[in-house]
């Protein structure tokens, strides 16, 4: 970890933003994610919680394609997983 890297854990507080609730990301976290105000983020469910990462349009397109394959070929995929 470099001297400018963020700690392994960062505690974030929830705050009221209009009628919604949000979190304020410290500038060090924004820098490490290479994002700024107005950018999109991915929040992915993980077995041990959630993973937050910068939105990657190319990755999002690939994920949508695989979701389509999984919906379309659900029965085949289930049979393959059982063999």
Structure description:
With about 80 residues, this protein is of the alpha+beta class. The protein has helices at about 25-35, 55-70, 75-80; strands at about 15, 20-25, 40-45, 50-55. It has a domain at about 1-40. The chain is built from three helices and four strands. The strands form two sheets. The chain has a two-stranded antiparallel ribbon with strand order 1-2. The longest helix has 16 residues, at about 55-70.
Shape: elongated
Q: Mind describing the biggest β-sheet? A: 2 strands, antiparallel
Q: What is the topology, as strand order, of the major beta sheet? A: 1-2
The helical percent reads 25-40%
| Total strands | 4
Helix and strand composition category: alpha+beta
Rounded radius of gyration (Å): 18 Å
End-to-end distance = 43 Å
Helix segment count?
3
- Share of β-strand residues: 15-25%
Could you name the ranges where pLDDT drops below 50 across 5 or more consecutive residues?
Answer: none
Helix-strand string:
EEHEEHH
Mean pLDDT: 87
Question: What descriptive keywords fit this protein?
Answer:
about 80 residues, two-stranded antiparallel ribbon, elongated, 3 helices, two-stranded antiparallel sheet, 4 strands, single chain, alpha+beta
